[in-house]
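During the no-cost extension, the postdoctoral fellow (Dr. R.K.) reprocessed legacy sequence entries with the updated structure-token encoder. One reprocessed record is reproduced below for audit purposes.
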Amino acid sequence: MEERYPAQVVVIGVHSPKFPNEREPANVRQAILREDIAHPVVHDPELLLWRRYAVRAWPTLVFVGPDGRILGVHEGEIPVESLVRAVAQLLARAGVTEASPLDFLAPEQRPRTPLAFPGKLAVSEARDRLVVSDTGHHRLVVAALDGTVYQVIGDGTPGLRDGSLDEARFCEPQGVFLHGDLCFVADRGNHAIRRVDLARGVVETIAGTGRLGHGFPSAGPARQLDLRSPWALWYRDGFLFVAMAGSHQIWVLDLATGLFQPYAGSGMEGIQGGPLDRAWFAQPSGLTSDGHVLYVACPEASAVRTVDLPGTPNPKVGRLVGTGLFDFGDRDGTGDAVRLQHPLDVAWSGRELLVADTYNHKVKRLDPTTRTCMTWAGDGHPGHEDGPLERARFWEPGGLAVAGDRVFVADTNQHAVRVIDQVRGVVWTLELRGLTPPGG
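Re-encoded structure tokens follow.
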């Protein structure tokens, strides 16, 4: 809308938070920078504007005419083409042709750091390989586990372009999964799944059209489907499981046939379990497995779910922790007594489940058998502090990966990769040697 009507339309965002962490101005500022938002955003922590405009859902669009009167309201997502048509009609009705744009302060620029808001990561201890989704720079970073950078994939410009590692383009990549010399990528901003052949040096799109899907698409050829914000991946035996956050589902891609279809989730948002096709998820954004079940991080329900893998008799979706869309907090304990706050990732350590409790700025340990969940690393305050587990500080950690006794953490708002040493019980920051921001 800002590009289509630069003079006639003024866009103002209103941030009406759901989670306590979203009420803090510093965290809102980071979100604005992370999402590269250029228009002004009003911070409304007490929901005053929410109530004044009788808002009931995220997102809600309110159209205000030049005289201050409300011309229309739309609740929920809307396809961009429909939005453009609706605004054109409103402009014609209000008699707006040209106008001088309002003079706002220039938006803040992102920091010139080697990483920008890293989202997810993957490791291969056998191949001494670490892949980091450098989400804010629209690229992938491949390094040794000691931080020596081997290569950067993508030219740093947002886009959807296949080709060589240097020429390829991504848009806000998130989940990555390593399988031999192949790296699968959940290219969230492009609503696509990409495959990087590290041996051949080639990037190709294997699912998605680059367009945002709407409604509840059914099975079909992967390259012909419009996807909805893929966030995380897990691979087994030629099948790629995808956390499709935008449609509240888990999908599965048959890499041999190219058939892509929903595996679990009806498309409804919530925490209901049961048979795969009737279960509800809430923006699933993290995947891992112990080889028996799939574990799913559902941030909007502050929950960790279980999904039976193919071959399981009467497969179902279950729940380890989390009780509802508006039940959240920071409480250790067992089962339904546990409270998380917007966890974005999970990782299997070989013994237990690790949870990136993102909005609590912690990493927690979760026993799938007893459902006991306890704080492991981080004191709950946002920051960047290395040292003993109980005194370390993270700032909205969003990704986890395990390599032996080391746990790698994508510390999103600190633009850093942190390492938890399970033997020594300390946290330290990984130096990615040789990495520079795009263009310098």
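The first strand starts at residue 13 and ends at 15. Residues 121-430 form a domain with the Neuraminidase fold (CATH 2.120.10.30). The remaining legacy entries will be reprocessed before the final report is submitted.
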